[in-house]
Design brief:
Helix content: 55-70%
Distance between the termini: 28 Å
Strand content: under 5%
Number of helices: 7
Shape: elongated
Length: 153
């Protein structure tokens, strides 16, 4: 059982790492740091120096995935991807473009979100149980046929 739990934990970590990498890749494929700088600075006609200064202030002046100028492990860790990923692992979500701490925003908004999500989840579970028991009660009738789905087995 311990080996199973360890194996599943390793799989979960690998899946989360893959999702993180895919999300990061897709985000920066659509929004390059130069595009983000232009958008934040106000349009298409922005000086190259202003774009470079904006990127340097936010850490986007480094390579995204691999830094050939660095030495040793720094080739992988001195990148935008490594900084963002290690920050999230350490529960440091960074700051918004307006300078607000994202971790603080999450902490302040999680209770209202959960106060809506948990009751809705419990109601959905209760209705699903009642619906399932109703289908069992009326087995082999038109009600059972109407409630059938290809995923019900």
């Amino acid at each position: 059982m311990i080996a199973y739990l360890i194996r599943r934990t390793i799989y979960a970590v690998l899946v989360l790492a893959g999702i993180n990498l895919a999300t990061f890749f897709l985000f920066f494929s659509v929004n390059t740091p130069d595009d983000m700088a232009r958008l934040q600075l106000g349009g298409k006609r922005v000086a190259a120096e202003a774009i470079e200064r904006w990127k340097a202030e936010r850490g986007y002046d480094r390579p995204l995935y691999f830094n050939p100028a660095a030495s040793g492990v720094g080739k992988l860790t001195d990148t935008v991807f490594a900084e963002n990923t290690l920050g999230v692992v350490a529960l440091d979500f960074g700051k918004t473009n307006e300078g607000r701490d994202i971790g603080w925003e999450i902490a302040n908004r999680i209770l209202p979100t959960l106060s809506v999500a948990i009751p809705v989840f419990l109601i959905a579970i209760g209705l699903s149980i009642v619906f399932g028991l109703g289908l069992v009660l009326f087995r082999h009738t038109w009600i059972d046929t109407a409630g059938w789905s290809p995923w019900s087995g």
